[in-house]
Write a structure and sequence with these properties.
28% of the residues are buried. α2 links the parallel β1 and β2. α5 packs across α6, α5 crosses α8 and α12 runs antiparallel to α13. The protein contains 14 helices and five strands. It has a three-stranded parallel β-sheet, with helices on both faces. The protein has a two-stranded parallel ribbon with strand order 4-5. The protein is globular. By secondary structure, the chain is mostly helical.
Length: 287
Amino acid sequence: MGKTDVAIQLAKVWNSEIISADSRQFYSEMQIGTAKPDTQQLREIKHHFVGQLSVHDYFNVSMFENAALKTIRSLFQIHDLVFCVGGSGLYIDAVCQGIDDFPDPDPKLRSFLKSIYLDEGISKLQQMLSERDPEYYAIADINNPNRLLRALEVCFTTGKKFSEQRLNNIKPRDFKIIKIGLNLPRPELFGRIEKRVDQMMEKGLLDEVKSLLPFRNLNALNTVGYKEIFEFLDSKITLEQAVVNIKTNTRRYAKRQLTWFNRTKEYTWFEPAQINEITNYLTLKCK
């Protein structure tokens, strides 16, 4: 049982709906590799922000903040409790406390950093960010070049660490926020990750990635589960190695997610099987 299953069970208890804050699940073409809720799950409970975009669409965290808040306030007209679910910490933070307004970088700086990425690859951006802002590097999605470029742009433009400027001014919300985290012992968590990757391959992840090969340079597709298979399709690695790499990178991503959410004491943690305990906790907190 994962976070989607838990959220559906809880939403049924409160006859509510779900806001997805998983940035990988926004795109309609990316079904298997993003562990998107399946047809049956989507029938059980209405989900918002699942498959509403194409990989060709531009969408950022600020746009998500505005759209999600509008939807949430609409849902609160008919529901007492609304569930925002996902593993993208930045998108969760956008809903709960807002996104800082950073200065736009000089076009020459942006061009300079992009040229470094094109000439020397993502590893060079990772090195630059780790040197200038190790705190943000520790929690960032370091395989996402746009995130790296944006953080570096802010560092160079302001002369300060990106991590020092993020979410310093929390925006007030007109609804109460209750934060719950789901976790498992590491061996069980990693075992589930490996099993899920194997299931994705059985469901046709390879064919899904093949169908997206012409669009591989789009930002949405530069993510775990897709970039590894692109390497296989480029004959750089075997399919078996691609699967191993997906499992390894997914484990690393899970660790970064936990680091992100553990940086604050606002979360109360449960295991996914503790549905009754979570229900009781929410009932108490909603009084």
